[in-house]
Amino acid sequence: MGAMLEATPVRAFSDNYIWIIHGARQHTRVAAVDPGEAGPVISALEQQHWQLSAILVTHHHPDHVGGVSELVERFHVPVYGPAGETIPERTVSVAGGARVHLQELELDFDVLDIPGHTRGHVAYCGHGALFCGDTLFSAGCGRLFEGTLLRCSAH
């Protein structure tokens, strides 16, 4: 049986969330997903006595990467981000088919290429969760800035 994932939403800006994730067996080590702002992440870390171990980024837009540089400067953690995009402080380039192993959290994620919102947009899938940035919402999908709609048909 795989490790259990826990995800905590942290409010950012007026209409966004940053996800803080950790494994069920390891509650003090966490990763931040798409930290558009550093302040809310730092506040959550301090309030919950968590230690940041990694950052996962889905795409290059400022509301998803704006806090990366400050977090890396303060916590010196690896940053996983799409190979096809310019991501500040990225240390590990990922693309569809890759697997991200967060050893300190005992969690693994499959990386999916999901271009459209941006050409290099990726998602992280694992443990019953999908962190898909700005490509899928409860009432639709994000805007297409750099890509085109993909048409799928069953054969």
Would you mind describing this structure in some detail?
This protein has 155 residues and is an alpha/beta fold. The protein has a single domain (5-131), classed as Ribonuclease Z/Hydroxyacylglutathione hydrolase-like (Metallo-beta-lactamase, Chain A, 4-Layer Sandwich). It has helices at residues 39-48, 62-65, 68-75, and strands spanning 5-12, 16-23, 29-33, 51-56, 79-82, 92-94, 99-102, 107-113, 122-126, 129-131. The chain has a six-stranded mixed β-sheet. A hairpin with a 3-residue loop joins strand 1 (5-12) and strand 2 (16-23). The longest helix is centred in the first third of the chain and has 10 residues, at 39-48. Mean pLDDT is 86; it is low at 151-155.
Give a brief outline of the structure.
By secondary structure, the protein is α/β, with parallel strands linked by helices. The chain has one domain (5-131): Ribonuclease Z/Hydroxyacylglutathione hydrolase-like (Metallo-beta-lactamase, Chain A), CATH 3.60.15. Helix content is 14%, strand content 34%.
Q: How helical, in percent, are the residues?
A: 10-25%
Radius of gyration, CA atoms, in whole angstroms: 15 Å
Structural class, from secondary structure content? Answer: alpha/beta
Task: Report the mean per-residue pLDDT as an integer.
Answer: 86
> How much β-strand is present in the residues?
25-35%
Overall shape: it is globular
